[in-house]
Design a protein that fits this description.
single chain; Undecaprenyl pyrophosphate synthetase; 6-stranded parallel sheet; 7 helices; about 45% helix; binds farnesyl diphosphate
């Protein structure tokens, strides 16, 4: 692990907003789904780079709850791409020790997509080098709303007292409960916003924005983001 990095401070958890696929395709006179196909290549490169750099968790914003509002053929193309990638990538992921987990509400997915989710989570469950969390049908407000409902249910059942709710209790009831908060959030594609991604978990994350469109994002781009992170001073609200 960490064979190629020469950075002293490696983030444990990197989360990425993979933006710019549509623009990348349009700039080449192609349809938007072509950009997502090219985006999968970047996913493959970044997973390999994360393993090489020694990152332990990589969360990828793959499909937001708002993305259902895109044209049906684009939604179908992304779902199909996920299913095809599961088949194509699983052997290499297992070889690299990568575990894939899906984070988000699975109810909205077709039976087929849910079957592929079960398949990739099951086939890669033993991976211990890197956990890749695909945020699918995920958005932060949706997650927080579900968490508040769950906590309210526990209070109604007498399993929890309102005064016992702490920040830790909330974290333990989020979809992301199995993962540490992201140390670094990267957004490609030139926009400067979080777009409903990990709002609670991002409280002390370092943010890195790059104009590079996602299909052009590669291992060097990832390394540059990690270098920028290594130069940041994290104070968590304290003084040095
Ligand atoms: C944002 O770019 C990208 C998405 C909403 C989809 C991301 C999905 C992939 C990279 C493929 C996922 C597949 C697997 C297997 C992980 P955009 O379309 O919003 O780009 P734009 O801002 O240029 O329109």
């Amino acid at each position: 692990m960490a064979e190629q990095n020469n950075i002293t401070k490696i983030p444990t958890h990197v989360a990425i907003i993979m933006d710019g696929n549509g623009r990348w395709a349009k700039m080449r006179g192609k349809e938007r789904p072509e950009g997502h196909i090219a985006g999968v290549e970047s996913v493959r490169k970044v997973i390999k780079a994360a393993v090489a750099e020694g990152v332990r968790y990589l969360t990828l914003y793959t499909f937001s709850t708002e993305n259902w509002g895109r044209p049906q053929e684009e939604v179908d193309a992304i779902m199909e791409l996920f299913c095809r990638s599961v088949i194509a990538e699983t052997p290499e992921l297992i070889k690299e020790g990568v575990q894939i987990r899906i984070m988000g509400d699975r109810v909205a997915f077709s039976e087929k997509v849910n079957a592929y989710i079960d398949r990739i989570e099951g086939d890669t469950a033993a991976g211990e080098v890197l956990t890749v969390v695909l945020a699918m049908n995920y958005s932060s407000r949706y997650e927080l709303t579900a968490t508040m409902k769950a906590l309210a249910g526990k209070i109604a059942d007498g399993a929890l007292k309102a005064e016992d709710i702490t920040a830790e209790v909330i974290s333990e009831n989020l979809y992301s409960k199995d993962y540490p908060d992201p140390d670094l959030i990267i957004r490609s594609g030139g926009e400067y916003r979080l777009s409903n991604f990990l709002l609670w978990q991002a409280a002390y994350s370092e943010l890195y924005f790059t104009p590079t469109l996602w299909p052009d994002f590669d291992k060097e781009s990832f390394h540059e983001a990690l270098e920028a992170y290594a130069g940041r001073q994290r104070r968590f609200g304290l003084v040095k």
